[in-house]
Amino acid sequence: MRTPARAARTSKAPRAPRKTRTKASSQSPAQHGSNDPAENHAPASAHDVNGGRVAVRVYRQGLGDCILVRLKRSGHDDFKLMIDCGVVLGTPDAGRIMTRVMENLLSDTQEKVDVLAITHEHWDHLSGFTQAPDAFAKLAVGAVWVAWTEDPKDDLANQLRTELGAARQKLAACASALRAVDDGATAEALEDIALIPLGAAALSSRSTKAAFDKVKARGNVPMCRPSDAPFEIPGANARIYALGPPHDPTLIRRINPATANPETYGLVMTGKGALPLGVVVALDGRENAAQGQDDAAPFHARVTIPLDAKGRPAIVNKPADDGDDWRAIDKFFQDNYVAGTDWRRIDGEWLGSATELALALQSYTNNTSLVLALELGEPGKGDVLLFAADAQVGNWESWQAWTCDANGVKVTGPDLLRRTIFYKVGHHGSHNATLKGHGVEEMDRLKAGIIPVDEKEALKKRWGRMPLSDLIEALEKKAPGMILRTDQEPVNRPSNVVIDDNYFEVML
Question: Which regions of 72-216 does DSSP assign to beta strands (E)?
Fold first, then answer.
């Protein structure tokens, strides 16, 4: 096993943020932590770790993730891991909220973190980096961790990017069509479901890609893979494993539970794979469609009237120079299709399935989540903190076969789940982001869980009940009184939990 990089140096004055862009690296986190040796320093936070080994802070900005993990080290400052920073599209006064979050984090980290992990490209995990740019500019970052799905040299990553990019383009076209007929509300609903800006915003500095690129420009960028050796935290008997996303084309596309025997909690969706079959066919046929051959079209080309750029039958805009028959055809389509009887046309019916595409795109991206497990103590024996981001079914299932060598000790995915004492509940407690048998039921040591959620906002966006009550019930059986949700203060506050307007923080 290679020697890991050392922790960042802490001086009396905060170190200035890095100004130069560093090329992304395909090496593992075990080779890329912060680069400078740590010096003696008191824990940098508003609240001491109170004798605990680690403090996990989950911010209360609404529907979105922003997490700060501080691991106490003897004779050194805390090791600080930041995971994501965002809030869902449409959050009122989001800039002020995310600036407050970022400023609080700056104050309690002495303006530096050893590692900033970005789990996946969704607005509710990335928006803070563009909504609070001045505060983020003050944060020194030792290393930025991303999943292997960002690796431009990885064939599967490139294939996934192509598929997701095609889906985004189709969805953006749908949103534009809706706005063109003054249906901006439905277009915004598609953005809410897909968790990404669409239309002009998707091409601007306010896009999820722009936010992601801004973060990646801040430090060396290792691409984390499940096959990587663990990152050994300098100055502590602790390490971080990358559990997901799986480098498997089948599992990474599996977003929904089985219909016959669902593996998740709550109401489940039907279907298999990342995208519905009709959507896959349409996306796969996009090159043929550009050449006038659309394999997903409902009728053969010889009985199809092509449309012009304005969505009208193209034949009516061409000179009728082929005799009276064509003039009659022109008049028929002009009278019956172009002149206002849009109800007779089916070329806009694809808009009706746009929400299905938006939901599939959301779940597909969620399943590319970087999943981290922090192990405290000896390899194969210590307590585990699980940060599953928004991982869906296939990501979770992949951990059952996951293994890793940690200093000569074989560590497995099921073993990490059994030793999990803290769980950051996936995707605001939704229906397909936490498994039963291969998830909660294996968490024999669970002591606490936190759900970053805003139930009122989720209902407003018509996402249904988040978090699911039966998921909370299952978690409560494992850790009574210690399953916390950021939109509600517990009736009986646990002694090892700090709560204020900005965050929940649990000491373990």
Answer: 79-85, 112-117, 140-147
Tell me the C-alpha to C-alpha distance, in Å, between residue 496 and each of 94, 109, 329, 480.
30, 20, 78, 14
Q: Cα dist. 113→45, 67, 305, 351 in Å? A: 12, 12, 59, 44
Q: Note whether 144 and 116 are within 8 A (CB).
A: yes
User: What is d(CA 376, CA 353) in angstroms, rounded to the nearest whole number?
Assistant: 47
Tokens of 351: 């808009």
47 Cβ neighbours under 8 A, 6+ residues apart: 55, 498, 505
pLDDT, the chain, mean: 79
Contact predicate 7/235, CB 8 Å: yes
Burial (CB count <10 Å: 0-12, 13-18, 19+), residue 148? buried
Where residue 306 falls among pLDDT bands split at 50, 70, 90? low
* Distance separating alpha carbons of residues 194 and 201, to the nearest angstrom: 14
Supply the pLDDT for residue 301: 56
Reference 7, options 58, 71, 66, 53; nearest CA is 71
Q: Write out the two tokens for 125.
A: 């995990």
Q: Return the SS3 of 502.
A: coil
**Which of 420, 365, 414 shows the shortest CA–CA distance to 391?**
365
SS3 168: helix
Q: Tell me what pLDDT residue 209 has.
A: 85
**Strand 140-147 relative to strand 112-117: parallel, antiparallel, unpaired?**
parallel
Q: How far apart are CA 123 and CA 64, in angstroms?
A: 8
β partners of residue 67: 58, 83
Model pLDDT, residue 192: 72
Contact 285, 296 (CB under 8 A): yes
Q: Is the peptide bond before 467 cis (omega within 30 degrees of 0)?
A: yes
Report the candidate in 447, 285, 419, 281 with the shortest Cα–Cα distance to residue 353. Answer: 281
Q: Are 7 and 41 in contact (CB under 8 A)?
A: no
- At 44 the three-state DSSP class reads coil
Residue 150 DSSP label: G
